[in-house]
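Build the 3D complex.
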Amino acid sequence: KAGVTQTPRYLIKTRGQQVTLSCSPISGHRSVSWYQQTPGQGLQFLFEYFSETQRNKGNFPGRFSGRQFSNSRSEMNVSTLELGDSALYLCASSSLQSRGGLGTGELFFGEGSRLTVL
Amino acid sequence: QKEVEQNSGPLSVPEGAIASLNCTYSDRGSQSFFWYRQYSGKSPELIMSIYSNGDKEDGRFTAQLNKASQYVSLLIRDSQPSDSATYLCAVNTGFQKLVFGTGTRLLVSP
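Done.
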């Protein structure tokens, strides 16, 4: 069974540009989450999608957005890039939609997209 | 106060010893707890989940949860050099929103 696939794996952008990252979840997984990982802040939750609906959002500015398509594939977009947006962006998928309505938290991560902003 | 706290380490143990990793969390209403392992340059992978007070064992790994003390731990028995990694404690606050600790780096020496 193929894992979570993220593209591109590496990218370099300059301040002010925008970037779109793509994520294909494990087949059959309908929940897709996005996380940002930096050495200083660790892993931070960006947002989660299930059946094309954003169910939860982290504490990030509106420059960070995402969407999910009917085939469960997801994209996230960062506009007006800042130096501080340099990070590893991780996508994770999950098979179970709920555990008492909370979701399982059992996530399968992709290899990530490493973004460098110059 | 951070929502999930871990000692950053490194925690150094000799091969064959028991490694004990600890985590505390601030939200008393939390119900789902996880340990993820992250090798250098790799993405996190789930190794244990625990939802009820007590111990949960899976092979060489044992997760322990004490909701009254808001404390989660991971024991790794018979530690191997291949266990050397960063271990991330995480709490599910709803709809797959996991709050992660900053991780404890474990070094297992041969």
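The first strand of chain B starts at residue 4 and ends at 5.
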